[in-house]
Structure formats: C-alpha cells, structure tokens
Specification:
Two copies of one chain form a homodimer. By secondary structure, chain A is an alpha/beta fold. Helices cover 42% and strands 15% of the residues of chain A. The first copy, chain A, is built from eleven helices and eleven strands. In chain A, strands 3-2-1-4-11-10-5-6-9-7-8 form an eleven-stranded mixed beta sheet, with helices on both faces. In chain A, helix 3 (68-74) packs across helix 5 (101-112). Mean pLDDT of chain A is 85; it is low at 330-349 and 351-355.
Chain lengths: 355, 355
C-alpha cells in the first residue's frame, strides 16, 4: 500500500478541489491522508467510501506573505507542514501541496531533510516534449547554482525520468548558450565536465529550444534560467491554445474544421497541459514532494497522486540516493572537485527564486 | 530616400537568399546596397532593374570560429563590417546581416559606435504577443546587466516599439520572479525603481509568461534570462506547429478539418513566425543594426529591410538619443545613481552571451 499525504487546504480553491481530486486516485494499492480542517474535509467527503482514506486535523494555514522558512517554523501544525511531517514519520511516502511554492520548498527541506550527499534540492518539472516528456531541473529552487549542484540535478533528473516517467536511459542536456562544451559561464563549463563523468547518459550542452525537441529527456539549468524558461513555455502554450480557439471561432467554415480536427488535437492539448503530470517535483529531499499549481483542477490533483505513487512504487528516492552515492571514477576527478564536501543549505537561500 | 546596407554573404545560403530578398523590398523610397562578392551578387541580380540598387565589392567573410571582436578587427574589408561602415559614413542608414550574432554585435559596436549615454547596447526581438507585438530586450547582448543598463533597455525598447512597430505608449515590464517591486535580485529591485522614474509607461515587474499575454509591449530582461526566454519561446512555437501538422495528418477526418481550418490559422502561423519582423535589432548603436536569422528566407530579409526602413523614416535613433538624454527628475535621484557616468564597454564583454 502506497500512502500519499495531501495538504487539503492548499491551492486557490482548497478542499473543494483537493479532496475530490485525491479521492479519484484512491484504490489499486493507493491510499491518501487528507491534512486540513476536519470539518471542511468531511463536508467534501460526504458519503464517499472511506477505504484508503484518512483525515488528519490540521486547521492552520501557512501565511503566504511571510518569508517561507519563517512561515514554516511558525506554523508547525499547518496542513502543509503536517503533510510533509507524515512523510518524515513514515506514515506516508509522498506529500502534495498546491500552496505557495516557496513555502512547500521550505516545508519539505526543513521537515523531510535532504538525501545524503545532496547539496541543494532542485525543482523538476516534466515538460511536454516531442515523443516523451522532458524533465526540466532546476525550475526555480535555487539561483546561482554551482557546478556540483548542476551535476546532482543531472543525476536526480535522470533517476526521476527513468523511475517515475518510465523513460529508459534518458539523455541529459545542460542548458547553455552554445553546443560546444567550452560555451557558457565558467560554472556551466565546469558542470559540463562533471556531468560527462557522472555515469549518466549525458548528451552535452543544449539550448532553451531543445527542451521540447525530443532530443533530451532531462534538461539541467540553474534555477533562475530554468524558471524563466518554464514561465516562457507556459506563456507560449497558453497563447497558442488561445489563438487556436480564436481561429476556430472566426467563421462557420473554421468552426466546422475545428470540430473535425478536435479529436486529433486532444493529444496536443494534453501534451501542453501543465496538469498532465500534476505539478513540479522537489528532488533531493528524503521523500517525494509535489508542488501542484495553485489553480490545479481535480484532474491535476489526481494525476499528482498517481505520478507520486508510481515514484514510490519504483523506489525513486532510494535509487536516487544510490546513484548520488556512487563515487565518481578517480581518473575523472580534478583537484578541488567538491565530491566529498556537503555544505549546508542556508535557510536564507530557501525559496529565493521560487515563485 | 532610405538606404539599407546588406551583408549579402551572411546566412546559411548567402547571396542566393539575401539578394532576391533585398530586391523585393526595393522601391517606394527604399534603396539597398549589397555588400559582398561582386561576381556572386551580379549573378543573382541577373537582368533585374538596378534602380535603387548598389553593389559594393567586399569579398572577405568573417571567420565565425574566431572571437567576435578579434574577427571584426581582423576583417575590416569583410561584407559584414563593410555594411556597418556604410552606416557610419552616412551612405546607408541601416545595416542587416544574417551572419553570426556575436560578430554583427561586435561589428556594429566597433563601427557605428554607441548613442551618447548608452552604456551597453541591447538586442531587441519583437515577439508575437496577443494583439500587438511585444519587444523583448535584452535577448542576449549582455549578461550580468546593471540596474542602469536595464533602465536604458526599457527606454530604448519603448522608443523602438513606438517608432518602429507603431505601438502607441507601449507598456514596459521588467522580467522578475514576482509582481511586487520588492521581488527579484537587488539589481532587479533597483532597476524597477529607475524604470519607474524614467518617464516611460512602466507597468512594473512581469513574469516570463507575460511576454506573450498582450499586457506588456516591452519586456526588459538581463541578456542571459532574455536569451533563455527567447530560445524557449522559439522551441515552444516550433513544437506546437509540428504537433498541429501531425494532428492534421492523423486521419482523413482530421485532414478535412485541417483544410477547413487552414485559412483561419494563417494569422497564427504568421504570428509565431520569427521571420515576420525579419530578425533581432541591436539598440543603442548609432544606426539601425539588424541581426537576421541564419536560416532567413527571402521573405525574412524583405521584412527586415522594410522594418529597418520604417525605423529610419520615423527617426528612431534620434528619438532614442533624445529620450536617453532627458534628465531624470532630481527628486527621483538617489546618491550614487549612475545617471551621468558612461563606463566604456570592455571589448572582452562583446558578445559574451550572444549565440
């Protein structure tokens, strides 16, 4: 039995979306724990069967205007922190929240802790690429990533694509401003060298457009650049859908064409729908942590639970830990490589880029 | 008479595309000077009428593998540098090249020089936004922009949108990671303050997705983030078109639907076509400098000539210089504001981000 803890109060519409969305995923070996105001959750549950469903009363909410790490420390009984705590206590294997990204980042880090050897967790977002999804990591947990952070993102993203999304031997690209290994900032050039020696299927540098070309199944980027890329792609997807809709309403002829084309376009719509994978995944913490969109629908929450459950089933955290622990071949090391040093994340760094 | 100088040898296919593209734009007060190997250019011109067409023999080409500033200095007689030199000498008012971005950036800077008061020129790219185009600046000339650089990009982008693209009182946004003026790096926070006091229609911070929403007609970003955003948008546009085409070929029914919908979709195709505006515009140099895509078609080159000619007609360089020279109200200045200091661009900085 896989158990997924949900912050039932998070998101724009709280329990009215989170509870029915979670309920759709229950069954087939998947159970949920709904954390939040018991009365509101019970009202949403109504007469639904309670097999595989547990409610944990946690009525407080994180103040999204507070600085994330402080907000988490000040509200240990909040629905979001409670969901994360259940993972640390082993009562659940994954936590999902549609609340503030910065707060969920801080709650996951401070509650679950990091996988041994991970300097900085990164946010992984599955993007709709040609053929198979492409995992963008880091989509905004950190800015000013060091080469070793980027290497770890590559290893974690690769494990995630393989174990959770089912992509075999995913090809990992490093976001730079040119294909040659020598292109980019000194950090990127060094990260290229580390990634090439890390035992994953490293395909070299890539550009922003390659995130969707299907050539790479993982794209590694510093959190600031990753966040810019993600938001740009979301904007482009929304624009295309809007213009497509407008075109299909511009004349009777176009309307008929749109109706005939519609079934074939469903795949495209699903592919660019940010809800297909339920949200973003914080990789590098000791547990599966999912940051769902604030305006998630029931379907998005259901998908988030299913994807997280698949990750648990495939032991993604354990596999990630193993791969991160695997020593880099000594011949590939250079003086000063930070392989055995694990600097602590400063609390002030938490959520500095996340939006 | 507006005269546009073209590097006839640039781009993937050189004179065979540049010459016919330029010829399509000749007439109605627009003339062209084709710089390159005279024999090759004459062969392309054939028996076409020569009114408004001049050929300047400049057979050398820039070595794209060399460091841009060095390549420009080593090849003063190259077709690209010749086109830029004609602008400095007043024989043309704009230069267009489909060659390497870094080299054209260096050639324009070293040959035309900067507008008085401009610290660092920025690359402006018109994006297809909802309703009107949106100018992204800087799309990759610099990385590590200082607040005053970002302010100048806002002023230059605003002039460009107004005088060249015909957008009245364009709303300028600053790319950050949140809407509040306090969000972002210290540089972005300071740039927000400077932009608000710069006398343009400043709409505050925006996110990557806002570049296409139609809310902003200018989006200011540091060159690295701008480049990431641009490449991401190009990738997203290409993916959508590809998927749309695949959907419309997936069945007989879909094929019929696609045929009926096609005329209504032409607007969308034009909107996401990077060739609509002919390329990127380097703003801040003393002349109009256009960096066309390497794989530009004849239509893209024609559009680049037309857009540049419009910019000349509207005196965009003079207006930009006036607006940049306009003093910031003293009440808005703070100690240490760099309003009257004009540090030199280091040659080593030229083209550091450009790809």
């Amino acid at each position: 039995m896989v158990t997924i803890a949900l912050d039932a109060m998070g998101g724009d519409r709280g329990p009215s979306v989170i509870v029915p969305g979670a309920m759709e995923a229950v069954g087939g070996g998947v159970g949920v724990v709904l954390c939040g105001d018991r009365e509101l959750i019970e009202a949403e549950l109504g007469n639904a069967p309670r097999d595989g469903v547990e409610v944990v009363h946690a009525p407080e909410q994180i103040d999204t205007h507070e600085e994330p790490a402080a907000a988490v420390r000040d509200n240990p009984g909040s629905s979001m922190v409670t969901a994360c705590r259940l993972v640390r206590e082993g009562r659940a294997q994954a936590a999902i929240s549609a609340g503030s990204t910065g707060a969920m980042l801080a709650a996951s880090l401070l509650t679950m802790g990091r996988i041994r050897g991970v300097h900085r967790p990164g946010i992984a977002v599955p993007l709709p690429a040609h053929g198979a999804p492409c995992v963008l990591i880091d989509a905004g947990a950190n800015s000013g990533s060091r080469p070793e952070n980027l290497r770890q993102c590559g290893v974690m993203g690769s494990s995630f694509a393989e174990e959770v999304l089912g992509v075999s031997s995913p090809c990992v690209g490093l976001r730079s401003v040119g294909e040659e290994a020598s292109k980019g900032t000194p950090e990127v050039v060094e990260a290229n060298r580390l990634l090439a020696a890390s035992g994953i299927n490293f395909g070299g540098n890539c550009e922003g457009r390659d995130a969707l070309s299907g050539e790479f199944q993982v794209v590694v980027a510093d959190g600031f650049a990753g966040n810019v890329l993600l938001k740009g792609l979301e904007g482009a997807g929304a624009m295309m859908i809007r213009e497509l809709r407008a075109a299909a309403n511009s004349s009777l002829r176009a309307k008929l064409g749109g109706m005939l084309l519609l079934p074939a376009l469903r795949g495209l719509r699903d592919a660019v729908n940010p809800e297909t994978y339920g949200g973003a995944y914080l990789l590098g913490v000791r547990g599966i942590s999912v940051i769902a969109h604030g305006n998630s629908s029931e379907a998005a929450i259901r998908n988030a639970v299913m994807v997280a459950a698949r990750g648990v089933d495939h032991g993604v955290i354990e596999r990630m830990a193993q791969r991160l622990a695997k020593p880099v071949p000594v011949s590939d090391l250079q003086d000063g490589d930070p392989v055995n040093t694990v600097p602590d994340v400063q609390e002030s760094e938490i959520g500095e880029t996340a939006t």
